[in-house]
Amino acid sequence: xxxxxxxxxxxxxxxxxxxxxxxxxxxxxxxxxxxxxxxxxxxxxxxxxxxxxxxxxxxxxxxxxxxxxxxxxxxxxxxxxxxxxxxxxxxxxxxxxxxxxxxxxxxxxxxxxxxxxxxxxxxxxxxxxxxxxxxxxxxxxxxxxxxxxxxxxxxxxxxxxxxxxxxxxxxxxxxxxxxxxxxxxxxxxxxxxxxxxxxxxxxxxxxxxxxxxxxxxxxxxxxxxxxxxxxxxxxxxxxxxxxxxxxxxxxxxxxxxxxxxxxxxxxxxxxxxxxxxxxxxxxxxxxxxxxxxxxxxxxxxxxxxxxxxxxxxxxxxxxxxxxx
Length: 324
Hints:
Blueprint: E1 16-20, H1 32-40, E2 45-52, E3 58-60, H2 91-94, H3 107-111, H4 126-132, E4 142-147, H5 160-173, E5 180-184, H6 187-196, E6 202-206, H7 238-244, E7 249-252, H8 259-267, E8 271-274, H9 280-289, E9 293-296, H10 299-308, H11 315-318
Parallel strand pairs: 1-2, 1-9, 2-4, 4-5, 5-6, 6-7, 7-8, 8-9
Antiparallel strand pairs: 2-3
Helix pairs in contact: 5-6, 9-10
């Protein structure tokens, strides 16, 4: 395991904090404004999502199709249907769309009612986000880059090799090899990253079938997401499979996490980052489970809970012995 990855491991009294899509609970997700705001409250890792435009430019956005609830068109009106695929638009065309707000009355608005409403925000390129890290005030910041690839919907996203190649190129051009994680639910992407840039840390995202969550799992027998890997008992041997695949980090859904598996994974050298942890009860469960990192839409909420529990998320803050 590369020594610089110790910056992402838990330490005595320290649990690492990752802002999810920046800090989606308070800022428009995956935006330059949101990333800056998240960095400025002391979060040292931000999770973000990457897709490719028609002209092969890596851009920071979560959904392969522009989301009507968060997208206004060139006419300043909300999109009325989900028919615009990111990979069918050039970056210049993509810049015609404003992603700074949430449409009232939508389920998304109900879920993130405290998110700021802003005007004139565009989907940024990965290169633009990477260049933020060259600023002196962000010299200690890391990017947790999720490459979005959907193997069960052919043609919705570009081939995994193409995705991996373009993202690696931006990382290398900005000399960020020691300040990034590359993760994906599609483990084929990680196999290409391993081949093209073996020193880049790779994080295997996992989601088991969870009845209370409306999301398709990526871990099951014969899964096209797993790049040919197999698991005998997906709820008990995932860390073995990931370690055997050469992964350095494991990112399980928080409801699939238990202390025993976290300990086993860490004993194998894996860093365990749980997603997406928003409720206080879930934050407490992840603290008690012993995870290395908590990925949250509400990093400020996690900060306060860590302090209340006698923890911090970075050593220099812990040294100040801040108390609520």
